[in-house]
User: Which sequence fits this backbone?
């Protein structure tokens, strides 16, 4: 099937480009053992986040949607010694598992988990120094609200990435609807004519199927 071909392609490329990583493997197995859903980014996409954050020399990162902290680890590893990452999570349980995984990854001092509804947490943030990089990956119906706050919180030239904006092509399928797809469409409609950012969609295909990142730069 196509899904098997995509997963095999991911494994093939990763076998040349990634090294064995006990910390990331442990984060996933601990998350599964605690009953968290297996909806973290793929390894290839986690590494892409890491490389993008490294490319702009990100020192301050905001993440919306922590789950077990898998993408958090990829992102926090891009930070310099004095860098910091704030990650927002609704579920106490997910936050607890993420904290374990971040402690195991030796990232305790760089990462702060804020528990609560992400939109409210974002409204409370008034950082002296804006963020360099923001990754949005929580409930999809909140995408436009998160994106609007992210534009306020990111520096000029900073990057905002939103996960799962293609959804196996369903976002573009007029016959299809659900709250996740509607959340992405609402974001895209909000972005049409938005002169605060320049954005494009990067289609991603691999062991998580056919999806995409929205990649935006704050002007
Ligand atoms: N970024 C994670 C990764 O790749 O490892 C995956 C995040 S998962 C797709 C989405 C997370 O958003 C879940 O842990 C869920 O509990 C959380 N979430 C859902 N609604 C939320 C809300 N209103 N505020 C904050 N977090 C929320």
Assistant:
């Amino acid at each position: 099937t196509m899904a098997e071909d995509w997963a095999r392609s991911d494994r093939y490329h990763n076998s040349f480009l990634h090294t064995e990583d006990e910390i990331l493997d442990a984060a996933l197995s601990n998350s599964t053992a605690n009953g968290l859903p297996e909806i973290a980014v793929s390894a290839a996409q986690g590494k892409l986040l890491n490389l993008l954050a490294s490319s702009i020399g990100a020192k301050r990162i905001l993440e919306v949607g922590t789950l077990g902290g898998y993408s958090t680890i990829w992102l926090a590893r891009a930070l310099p010694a004095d860098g910091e990452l704030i990650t927002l999570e609704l579920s106490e349980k997910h936050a607890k598992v993420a904290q374990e995984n971040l402690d195991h990854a030796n990232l305790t001092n760089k990462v702060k988990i804020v528990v609560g509804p992400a939109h409210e947490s974002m409204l409370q943030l008034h950082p002296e120094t804006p963020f360099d990089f923001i990754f949005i990956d929580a409930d999809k119906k909140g995408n436009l609200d998160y994106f609007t706050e992210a534009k306020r919180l990111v520096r000029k030239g900073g990057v905002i990435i939103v996960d799962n904006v293609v959804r196996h092509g369903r976002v573009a399928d007029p016959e299809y609807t659900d709250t996740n797809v509607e959340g992405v469409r609402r974001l895209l409609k909000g972005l049409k004519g938005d002169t605060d950012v320049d954005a494009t969609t990067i289609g991603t295909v691999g062991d998580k199927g056919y999806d995409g990142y929205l990649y935006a730069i704050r002007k």
